[in-house]
Amino acid sequence: MFFLLTQSAKTMSNNNRHLTDQERLDWLRLYRSENVGPVTFFRLLERFGSAGQALEALPELAKRGGGKKPISLYAKAAAEKELAALAKLGGQMVAACEPDFPAALASLETAPLITVRGNPHLLPRSAVALVGARNASAAGRRMAFQLAADLGRAGLLVVSGLARGIDTAAHEGSLGTGTVAVLAGGVDVVYPPENQGLYDRLVGEGAVISEMPPGTTPQAMHFPRRNRLISGMSMGVVVVEAAPRSGSLITARLALEQGREIFAVPGSPLDPRCQGPNGLIKQGATLTETAADVMEVLGDMLRRPLTEPPSRGFGGPPPSAPDETEMARARKIVQECLSPVPTTVDEILRQSRLTPAVLAMVLLELELAGRLERHGGHKVSLLP
Q: Which of 98, 143, 134 is nearest to 116 (CA)?
């Protein structure tokens, strides 16, 4: 038996501030600036209190981190052009502190900004991702369509990636109840082109989102970033047909790192497209034959109030900066702890015996200087 979900505005109480036009411009410029990823973005916002103040501090921070050249800031004119292009499309940019930002995504340091075409009011709903093979079988497409339709009728927003095969079937099955496509390229770039008709329906009846600038052609490097948004905005990921080492299994791995539930539809061991889901089931994923299998796992989570997402930079004045003598000593200690081998931040904190605030600042400086790489599992490594 399915039950209808409701989304209380109270669960979004920490995501209820709309950015001003100037703040939106500053957020966009900061996120698009050189060496600023999502984690760094939020660390900067926590440290300086606003994106505008963080932008002013970037050049000096990168210099302290040992940058070989001045950091490149995203130009104000470029940001204004991007926002104007989005407005011309009838789209909008939504920040992690705003009420239309996906609720589950807001609890992660995964993306500070997304661009949206369609109906942004759908995004805060409880969601489940449904992904799988591009070269899906007829049975696989039928299964994805039925699962999406049933999950939608149960009140869940269905998220997928607009790809051929399983993604297409998932969107088609849930158009009437709510579905969102996450794109690897710009929010206005339809890929594959054959899905233009489905894209147009999504803009009218659902929503299409991306974190790339409008007009961006999707590249191979963009798809893992797209996949982390698909898993991040969902409570769980359902995999229907996926070959080993496929993008769908990357999405499942990212979902695990983000603490999401994994569901897999079993299939014939003679079909290579079923090796991915069958392997996930062996590793502990929930064997899924109907939407009821998904709802049984997610039911308790959906009945419990959602935890409020962390504050996104509007919680008061920034903390005072550490003493420069202390920072100079800390930089030397941290660099001795770092190596090309990824190490957890907790391990560096234990070995260095620094305060979390000082360690965070040193890592921030190194990343802005282009000398530090962040990995999954809260690991970092030193770049050559």
A: 98
